[in-house]
Amino acid sequence: MGKATGFIEYDRIQTPVRKPKERVRDWNEYSLPLPEKDLTIQAARCMDCGVPFCSIGMEIKNGVSGCPLHNLIPEWNDAVYRGEWKEALELLLKTNNFPEFTGRICPAPCEGSCTVAISEPAVGIKSIEKAIIDRGFAEGWIKPNPPKTRTGKKVAIIGSGPAGLACADQLNQAGHQVTVFEKSDRIGGLLMYGIPTMKLEKESVERRVELMRAEGIEFVTGMECGKDISADELKKTYDCLVLATGASKPREVSIPGREALGIHLAVPYLTQSIQDLLSGNAEQTLSAKGKNVLIIGGGDTGADCVATALRQGAESIVQLGRRGKPVSERAAGNPWPEYPLVFQMDYAHEEADAVYGHDPREYFVSPVEFLKDEANQLTGLKTIQVSRDESTGRYTEVPGTERIYRAEMVLIAAGFAGATDDIFTNFDVNQTDRHTIDAAKGFYRSSSERVFACGDARNGQSLVVTAIAEGRETAREVDFYLMGETFLP
Ligand SMILES: Cc1cc2nc3c(=O)[nH]c(=O)nc-3n(C[C@H](O)[C@H](O)[C@H](O)COP(=O)(O)OP(=O)(O)OC[C@H]3O[C@@H](n4cnc5c(N)ncnc54)[C@H](O)[C@@H]3O)c2cc1C
Ligand code: SF4
């Protein structure tokens, strides 16, 4: 432990961010690095607790608590405090294949369960993680490290999001010949197309893919498995298949007027914006410029739509959510070390507040009908207020609270309803009642022989850190299946 009294002497220092009014003029990352002296202070705040709750990675009541990758947080905090950055990097890479992603976009369940957070703001774990990996790349410490020997076994990974990439990385290190198939034109899943550049610049995804290619992994883009190549053909060539195809089936808003022009699903909208940026299109194809924009869905995907529409020059933005406004401090039913369900200003909400003068979120609102003109063009949305019965969790409409919002663009960010239907039929795998691939956690075997499943396709929409953890665990199961033993962690 670096400094025994650090948590008493020093305060938390937040990751610095660029000023909202400045950053909305570009598409670059909004967060900035912490100077080394501040990182040392943050690391000194770590108490090196007997039981490091920050790394337990357990599902408690309100979701995951602690780091699902069981990152060795107290150990690398100590190394950073001592100025031993290379040692910190080695410790970090033992458990996390891609800290350059999690250090930027993880909601940091580790910090919600940090012991310091019982009475003080948590240790800035995520900032330290980002600094360690960024330094590793800047110093040239991260180099291709192909396996010394090959096993002669071949594995096909279907889907190149964080789950598929982590699984591929681990299996390649174990000596198997790995091919990653991706139906899109670029590798990365939602890391590439979905999560906006302001949160994660795409150069870091491409840098990691190049590193993995140099270590011997083959990447095939523009190949929709099950359609362009059948499951049977894949099974003839590969010893095992891993389905890491995500959970991209959108939850629809099926109300009258849905066919109006100007209503878009969130992920295709965000994807188009990123594709325009990457291909150098000066204009955004699907632009909110000059429009009154309504976003249906109060979650993080909706927030990413707020930030994107803002940069495109929307006239106004309102984000509608069915749930109520979160409380400002942990409720009695949400104690430490659970993930704290408290009100937060996300980067997108800070930006909207700076540009329009108010938080764009409105609560307890349910959509009733899309309004349109004779040309089928969207003109607005009729809504109604709802209230929640705390004992049953049910929402009911409050009579007389209808309201009409003017809108020329609506973005639907109402969540996801599991994996896409084609996966179950094309790969002949059973599904759960949540419309995900039926493969028990810890084993990851589907109902089809030699076919494994991981990430959102198995687990439902989750987090990048959870997807990486599932990819790693699945690699261990595949390795054991192929070799009869495994040395993978
Ligand atoms: C807009 C948005 C923002 C998000 N922001 C965050 C965030 O800030 N932090 C966070 O932790 N999590 C975030 N998430 C959640 C996170 O991105 C996902 O949980 C994670 O990416 C899941 O990883 P995955 O590998 O299972 O699937 P995905 O990332 O969805 O990747 C699946 C891949 O499989 C490919 N595929 C599907 N079918 C086939 C096929 N038949 N053949 C070949 N390829 C196929 C898809 O094209 C896709 O590339 C966000 C999600 C969304 C939608
Ligand atoms: S991956 Fe996420 S939960 Fe784990 S240490 Fe990093 S920020 Fe925390």
From TrEMBL:
<dbReference type="InterPro" id="IPR051394">
    <property type="entry name" value="Glutamate_Synthase"/>
</dbReference>
<dbReference type="InterPro" id="IPR009051">
    <property type="entry name" value="Helical_ferredxn"/>
</dbReference>
<feature type="domain" description="Dihydroprymidine dehydrogenase">
    <location>
        <begin position="24"/>
        <end position="139"/>
    </location>
</feature>
<dbReference type="InterPro" id="IPR036188">
    <property type="entry name" value="FAD/NAD-bd_sf"/>
</dbReference>
<dbReference type="InterPro" id="IPR006005">
    <property type="entry name" value="Glut_synth_ssu1"/>
</dbReference>
<keyword id="KW-0560">Oxidoreductase</keyword>
<feature type="domain" description="FAD/NAD(P)-binding">
    <location>
        <begin position="153"/>
        <end position="318"/>
    </location>
</feature>
<keyword id="KW-0314">Glutamate biosynthesis</keyword>
<dbReference type="InterPro" id="IPR023753">
    <property type="entry name" value="FAD/NAD-binding_dom"/>
</dbReference>
<dbReference type="Pfam" id="PF14691">
    <property type="entry name" value="Fer4_20"/>
</dbReference>
<keyword id="KW-0028">Amino-acid biosynthesis</keyword>
<dbReference type="GO" id="GO:0004355">
    <property type="term" value="F:glutamate synthase (NADPH) activity"/>
</dbReference>
<comment type="pathway">
    <text>Amino-acid biosynthesis.</text>
</comment>
<dbReference type="Pfam" id="PF07992">
    <property type="entry name" value="Pyr_redox_2"/>
</dbReference>
<dbReference type="InterPro" id="IPR028261">
    <property type="entry name" value="DPD_II"/>
</dbReference>
<protein>
    <submittedName>
        <fullName>Glutamate synthase subunit beta</fullName>
        <ecNumber>1.4.1.13</ecNumber>
    </submittedName>
</protein>
